[in-house]
Design a protein that fits this description.
This protein has helices spanning about 15-25, 75-90, 150-155, 160-175, 180-190, and strands at about 5-10, 30-40, 55-70, 95-100, 105, 110-120, 125-135, 200-205, 210-215, 225, 230-235, 240-245. By secondary structure, the chain is an alpha+beta fold. Helix 2 (about 75-90) packs across helix 5. The protein is globular, with a radius of gyration of 18 Å.
Amino acid sequence: MKATEIYISETPSTNALLKSYIQDKKLKDFTVLYTDHQTQGRGQMGSSWSSAKGKNIACSVYKEFNGISISDQFIISMLVSLALIDVLEELKVPKLKVKWPNDLYSSNKKIAGVLIETTMSGTKLSSAVIGIGLNLNQKEFEGLPHASSVLNLTGKLIDRSHVVQLIIKKLASRFKMIPVGFQQIKAEYESHLYRKDKVSLFKGEQIGTVNGIIKGINEKGQLLIDIDQQGVLKFNLKEVELLSSN
């Protein structure tokens, strides 16, 4: 599909700017706003997203929904993650995983992050602004030892406009899966989950610093970790940190 594109050379946040456009005018489904430089990029729960000017993908996509209940809204996060795996597979990036909830990794290197901001109507999800940061053609990541890019992982420079359209194409394809239901999408998402079924070191206020094993997610999208001597516990965003994957 050919999406409606809005290009801005520089903006503090593509999500914030696209949301301001929603208030001012009626946007078409899958409208995408992208920029050369995002000066105040955000990740989940207010974390920052830093990107070199003109090298990477910083975009936000407006998507309308019909009939998704608030309790099932994590389905959107899962489908966006799977769509980005589809994109990166087409770009020949190896060893792809989703670090819960929706960071994209190649081996132990982060290459993409997502920020989804939803709008509700009653008990249903009506729309979302899906912010995507994807490290594409940047070589150096000073002070970020666990960051990488498509260029570093494949050795190939990639046309940014092509990738923006590829993202829309894969999102559109994945969102067609919504009627298959939460459980089937959850199963595919969990099959790509970073560090699933492997002993890792975690830190959290509830658990201290302990070894645990990621077992998957529940119907609310909470992360399920089997903690030594405590059993399987559930965690919301920012309640637990993966410290080591040795």
